[in-house]
Amino acid sequence: MTDPTLAADEAARAAANAFQSQSLTADETTLKLLFTEARTHYGWQDRDVGEGTLRSLYEIAKMGPTSMNQQPMRVVFVRSSDAKDRLEPALFEANRPKMRTAPVTAIIAYDLNFWEELPKLFPPNPGAQDIFKNNATAAQVNAFRNGTLQGAYFMLAARAVGLDVGAMSGFDNAKVDDEFFHGTSVKSNFLVNLGYADTSKIFRRLPRMDYDEVCETI
């Protein structure tokens, strides 16, 4: 009888080899959509973002690689007026109108107890959760690192499904945690406004560092 795990591994290798053999690269339009022409937005059209779009966004974002397939990111989509009322007091004054006018604001958070899911998410190592179960420092470092990485995937996925993005860190994390995650192992990381941008609110693109300023080959 064929071992189903071995068969699944062989099928995965065959699929990866077939995909690699296509030698695909992103076209110019895709690069513009995700990086070179995409902007951080501060104003929003009065246009709804459907639940299906948010689901599609997550289904793309969850495929990004993380260490040991850890998936600590947790997301609260703040859409209703009541939910915005709860979030607003935690925001710096300048960020409140950005959140209020956005169709959706995602609270990107991470679960310190992500390791509880590792038996399901990382079956190649049945004892993976033991690395973090009694080591709060390792759990926190990995939850924050991989949760942040997933948050970056989340923003790219949002652009991929046609949404505009405005990430924000100007808020009181402790207040958000108390309001939305009280009594849980989940902690807020940053916020992402989602919707269809009012482009009249953007300004000139700010400079980036050049390759020779930040990169070296050794």
Quickly describe the structure.
This protein is of the alpha+beta class. It has ten helices and four strands, in the order αααβααβαααβαβα. 28% of the residues are buried.
Can you tell me about this structure?
The protein is α+β, with helices and mostly antiparallel strands and 218 residues long. It has one domain: NADH Oxidase, CATH 3.40.109.10. Strands 1-2-4-3 form a four-stranded antiparallel β-sheet. It is globular, with a radius of gyration of 20 Å. The mean pLDDT is 97.
Number of strands: 4
Tell me the radius of gyration: 20 Å
| Count of helical regions | 10
The helix/strand order is HHHEHHEHHHEHEH
The CATH topology annotation reads as NADH Oxidase
List keywords for this structure.
218 residues, alpha+beta, NADH Oxidase, 4 strands, globular
Architecture blueprint of SSEs:
Elements: H1 4-20, H2 28-36, H3 51-61, E1 73-78, H4 81-87, H5 96-101, E2 104-111, H6 118-121, H7 130-133, H8 136-160, E3 164-168, H9 173-180, E4 186-195, H10 211-214
Antiparallel strand pairs: 1-2, 2-4, 3-4
